Automatic annotation (TrEMBL):
GO terms for cellular component: mitochondrion; mitotic spindle pole; spindle microtubule. One of its GO terms (molecular function) is microtubule binding. Keywords: Cytoplasm, Cytoskeleton, Repeat, TPR repeat. PANTHER family: REGULATOR OF MICROTUBULE DYNAMICS PROTEIN, REGULATOR OF MICROTUBULE DYNAMICS PROTEIN 1. This is Regulator of microtubule dynamics protein 1. Interacts with microtubules. It holds the Pfam family RMD1-3. It comes from Euphydryas editha. It comes from the Eukaryota. It is found in: Cytoplasm, Cytoskeleton. Its main location: cytoplasm.
Length: 294
């Protein structure tokens, strides 16, 4: 399921303020530069090109194979074998089929979260994914998956490029998520990601926002109500699909002083079957919040 993959390390917004220590001497009165950072959570090698021999006939056969290839790739992806999925698809990249290309980018995105790769390789994986998906975001703007994966890949790419690039792309990332959700209003993972975008923007402390506005660029605004709306839509689209979504709903209700609703969702998050790191995290955080409510 995409959302689990997105936030299993995921998808993510990195710490946009961790590099601003160099500005400390310029604005010492602002207590931005403590160890606290704001973490946004909004996720083999390649070039196995096909042979050029018998080009026309082989291309025709490969085009006919694409539906079965994408089905096989999806099954491989769902088992978490991202590198295997990539190697399966990359042989067909030169067919220039959008359904092949966005799946290649999806595999690269998730490979880039694998700790077995060093930071340099992870950045290269994201750069390769971006170079592929950016070609299609204009020519296939009507494709839900293209818009979705462009937003996610752009987010990580901008994080890799530094704080200013990250801030400058925040609105653009959300724009493409909004376009994707317009094309597919019932994708639970995407609705959750939109909720995360709103939640993390809202959570940003005032003094950090003002400092970022002064040094880099104006940050967008959102509210807990906005975040809650997306989280609830995600839950309605696919009930109990993700432990963190349940946790976030509970957190939003707490922020909005609605303790009864908060307790209901926090209990669901605390008792969610733990099959991933995110599930364990949701269990722990929800249990801690429930203790404070007693």
């Amino acid at each position: 399921m995409d959302t689990r993959i997105l936030t299993l390390g995921t998808f993510v917004f990195q710490n946009i303020f961790k590099k601003v220590y160099k500005y400390k001497s310029q604005i010492p009165q602002i207590m931005l530069f403590r160890t606290h950072t704001v973490t946004f959570i909004f996720s083999g090698l390649w070039f196995l090109w096909p042979t050029n021999s018998s080009k026309n006939n082989s291309n025709l056969k490969e085009i006919n194979l694409i539906p079965s290839i994408t089905e096989m790739a999806d099954k491989t992806f769902e088992t978490g074998k991202y590198e295997e999925c990539y190697n399966l698809l990359i042989k067909y990249k030169m067919q220039n089929d959008v359904e092949i290309k966005w799946r290649i980018c999806r595999a690269l995105y998730n490979m880039a979260k694998d700790p077995k790769y060093n930071e340099k390789i992870r950045k290269e994986l994201i750069s390769q994914a971006y170079d592929i998906i950016v070609e299609d975001v204009k020519t296939n703007s009507h494709n839900f998956a293209v818009q979705k994966w462009y937003a996610l890949i752009l987010d990580v790419k901008s994080s890799n490029e530094g704080i200013q690039a990250k801030i400058e792309q925040l609105e653009n990332v959300k724009k493409h998520m909004d376009l994707a959700v317009t094309l597919n209003p019932n994708d639970a993972s995407l609705l959750h990601m939109l909720g995360e975008w709103c939640f993390q923007i809202t959570e940003l402390p005032w003094h950090q926002r003002k400092t970022a506005d002064a040094i880099f660029a104006s940050l967008p605004y959102s509210t807990y109500e906005d975040a809650l709306e997306y989280y609830l839509k995600a839950e309605a689209a696919q009930p109990r699909f993700y432990s963190i979504n349940l946790l976030r709903i509970g957190c939003c209700y707490l922020k909005l002083k609605k303790e009864d609703q908060a307790k209901y969702y926090l209990k669901l998050a605390a008792s969610y079957p733990a099959k991933s790191d995110d599930d364990h995290r949701a269990n722990k955080e929800a249990a801690e919040l429930l203790k404070k409510l007693k």
